[in-house]
């Protein structure tokens, strides 16, 4: 009986943990995302997304720097995941949107979790 209680307590803890790691899909300004989701975003940003080709940490290359994107989206309280789904217009550099638009095909094909991870990674550069 005691063991059974212990086992169900453990099970409860484990399922709570699982939930906790999945609740980061909409990262609001001011709260810290978990390190693992940021790491996952970094991997996508540098790997499959190929975002680093145009977005560097601090300097503008072809696209705005990651820090600038984090700063502006945070200040404007804009929805980056919606942008990555192709649903909202560019707010940083609308004249160059055509260059970015092509890459939205990649992010549109991603899952909600993957877009949330990209956002969490970018937001980890916010001041
Ligand atoms: C070929 C170059 C290029 C690549 C690759 C690229 N981007 Fe961009 N990106 C741009 C340019 C140029 C802009 C500025 C135009 C704009 O604001 O939409 C931009 C803007 C953005 C913005 C700001 C949108 C806004 O509201 O103005 C975000 C967020 C962004 N990119 C995310 C990404 C992510 C995530 C990836 C990888 C999946 C990526 N970009 C890959 C060129 C690129």
Descriptive report:
This protein has 127 residues and is an all-alpha fold. It has one domain (2-123): Cytochrome Bc1 Complex, Chain D, domain 2, CATH 1.10.760. 57% of the residues lie in helices and 0% in strands. The protein has helices spanning 2-22, 35-46, 66-75, 80-84, 97-108, 112-123. Helix 2 (35-46) packs across helix 6 (112-123). It binds heme C. Residues 49-51, 53-55, 62-64, 69, 80, 83, 90-93, 96-97, 99-100, 103, 106-107, 118 line the site of heme C. Residues 36-126 form the Cytochrome c domain. This is Cytochrome c domain-containing protein. GO terms for molecular function: electron transfer activity; heme binding; metal ion binding.
Structure, briefly:
The chain is mainly alpha-helical. It is 57% helix and 0% strand.
Query: What is the residue-averaged pLDDT?
Result: 86
CATH superfamily: Cytochrome c-like domain
Q: Please name the CATH architecture.
A: Orthogonal Bundle
Main β-sheet description: none
Discrete helix count:
6
- Please identify the structural class as seen in this structure: mainly alpha
Q: List each distinct ligand once.
A: heme C
SSE order, as H and E?
A: HHHHHH
Query: How far is the first residue's CA from the last residue's CA?
Result: 52 Å
Q: What is the CATH T-level topology? A: Cytochrome Bc1 Complex, Chain D, domain 2
The level of helicity is 55-70%
Low-confidence stretches: 15-24
Shape field: globular
Q: Could you say how many structural domains there are in total? A: 1
| Strands, total number | 0
Briefly, what CATH class? Mainly Alpha
In terms of DSSP E residues, the strand content is under 5%
């Amino acid at each position: 009986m005691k063991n059974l209680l212990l086992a169900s307590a453990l099970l409860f803890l484990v399922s709570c943990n699982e939930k906790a790691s999945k609740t980061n899909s909409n990262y609001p300004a001011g709260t810290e995302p978990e390190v693992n989701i940021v790491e996952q975003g970094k991997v996508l940003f540098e790997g499959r997304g190929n975002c680093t080709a145009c977005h560097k940490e601090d300097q503008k290359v072809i696209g705005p720097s990651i820090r600038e994107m984090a700063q502006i989206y945070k200040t404007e309280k804009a929805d980056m995941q919606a942008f990555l789904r192709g649903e909202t217009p560019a707010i940083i550099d609308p004249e160059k949107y055509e260059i970015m638009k092509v890459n939205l095909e990649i992010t549109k094909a991603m899952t909600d979790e993957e877009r949330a991870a990209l956002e969490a990674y970018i937001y980890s550069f916010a001041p």
